[in-house]
Design goal:
42% helix, alpha/beta, binds 1,3-dihydroxyacetonephosphate, 12 helices, 253 residues, TIM Barrel
Length: 253
């Protein structure tokens, strides 16, 4: 059975004090989450070490939102995958559409980061998704397939086994406009089929594919009930502990 995962991407929100308070509040409520759901917090880099200590005795997991393309050295302002791992974080989000569009991250850059994450014992949460115009022009399947082919489909099947995918249609991120469960399922089913074609039936069966884009307590259950949706990558709603916990309790399968 595939893992069920909810990851909260805080993006560039919460100073350290606020981040600690949010974590404490999530900790207090996390007893309500079924044991088979993996809940991951992805705060800004600067919070990782502190929040790692905060969640040490809980089932909560920790992720970074990005990592450097290089292992180490003279790259002012960058944070390497090994530094992230040394905080206790086990995951890293790679290829988020905000990084692709605001920081010009190409698929080549994303592929390099995925490789470094894997080398440093991190699970990469790799994002893909089409823009509004690509959706309207009905190019969403080839766009997402291309993103996967230039990144995770270049990995060995062993390495691919450690990858978590997140489908985040750009037009649904932070817009309040969620993909319908049918639209999301259609894409998740497509991605799973492509994984099977590129790797194996087992790889397709075992890979977790998360949905992201205006996911909230009121729509999470319907999305997570879809056969190929294995959880969510949550932005805005992950900043409110009650909403985030509600979403984490929204699995029915
Ligand atoms: P929102 O949930 O705020 O739409 O953000 C989704 C997202 O980008 C998560 O990575």
């Amino acid at each position: 059975m595939r893992p069920q995962i909810v990851a909260g991407n805080w993006k560039m929100n919460n100073d350290l004090h606020e981040g600690r308070k949010l974590t404490q509040s999530i900790k207090e409520l996390q007893g309500d989450i079924p044991a088979d759901v993996t809940v991951i917090l992805a705060p800004p880099f600067i919070h990782l070490a502190e929040i790692s200590r905060e969640i040490m005795d809980t089932p909560l997991k920790l992720s970074a939102q990005n990592c450097a393309t290089e292992e180490k050295g003279a790259f002012t302002g960058e944070v390497s995958a090994s530094m992230i791992r040394s905080t206790g974080a086990q995951y890293v989000i790679i290829g988020h559409s905000e990084r692709r569009s605001y920081y010009n991250e190409t698929d080549d850059v994303i592929y390099k980061k995925i490789q470094l994450a894997l080398k440093n014992d991190l699970y990469p949460i790799v994002c893909c998704g089409e823009s509004l115009s690509q959706r309207e022009n009905e190019q969403y399947f080839p766009v997402v397939e291309d993103q996967l082919e230039k990144t995770v489909f270049k990995l060995s099947s062993e390495d691919f086994g450690r990858v978590i995918l997140a489908y985040e249609p750009v037009w649904a991120i932070g817009t309040g406009k969620t993909a319908t469960p049918e639209q999301a399922q259609e894409m998740h089913g497509f991605i799973r089929q492509k994984i099977q074609e590129n790797f194996s039936r087992d790889a397709g069966e075992n890979t977790a594919i998360l949905y992201g884009g205006s996911c909230k307590p009121s729509n999470a259950a319907e999305l997570f009930a879809q056969p190929d949706i294995d959880g969510g990558l949550i932005g805005g709603a992950s900043l409110k502990s009650k909403d985030f916990i509600e979403i984490s309790k929204s699995f029915s399968k």
